[in-house]
Amino acid sequence: MTGSLGRGLTPYGLRCDHRAEPLGVDEPAPLLSWRLASGRRGDAPAGLRVRVRADDGAPVWDTGAVADPSAVSVRYRGPALRPRTRYRWTVTVTDAAGAASREESWFETGMLSPAAWSAVWITHDPSVQDVMDAPEEGELALADHGLQPAVRLRKAFEAAAAPVAARLYVTARGLYETRLNGARVGDAELAPGWTDYRDRVDYQVYDVTDLVRTGANMLAATVADGWWSGFAGFDERRAGAHYGTFPQLLAELHLVHADGSADVVATGDDWQSARSPFRYADLLKGECHDLRRETPGWDLPSGGRDGAGWRPAWVAATDRSRLTASVAPPVRAVRELPARSVARVSGDRFLVDFGQNFAGRVRLTARGLTPGGRVVVRHGEALDEAGALYTANLRTADATDVLIAGEDAEAVFEPRFTYHGFRYAEVTGLSSLAAADVTGVVLHSDTPWAGDFTCSDPDVDRLHQAISWGQRSNFVSVPTDCPQRDERLGWLADAQVFLPTACLNADVAAFFDGWLREVRGAQSPDGAFGNVAPKIAGVADEGAPGWGDAGVLVPWHLYRVYGDERFLERNLDAMCAWVDHVHRHNPDLVWTRRTGPHFADWLAPAPTPRDVLATAYFARSAALTARAAEILGADEAAARYGALAAHVRKTFAERFVSPDGRVSGDTQTAYLLALAFELLPGELVPGAVRRLAELVEEAGPGLTTGFLGVGLIAPVLDAHGRADLAHALLRRTDPPSWLYPLRHGATTVWERWDGYTPERGFQAAAMNSFNHYALGSVGEWLYRGVAGLDQAPGSAGYRDLLIRPRPGGLTEASARYESVRGLVSTAWTRRDGVFDLRVAVPPGATATVHIPTDDPGGVRESGIPVADAPGVSVAGTARRELRCRTGSGEYRFTAPLQ
Ligand code: BGC
Question: Which residues form the Bacterial alpha-L-rhamnosidase N-terminal domain (predicted)?
Answer without folding.
Answer: 164-334
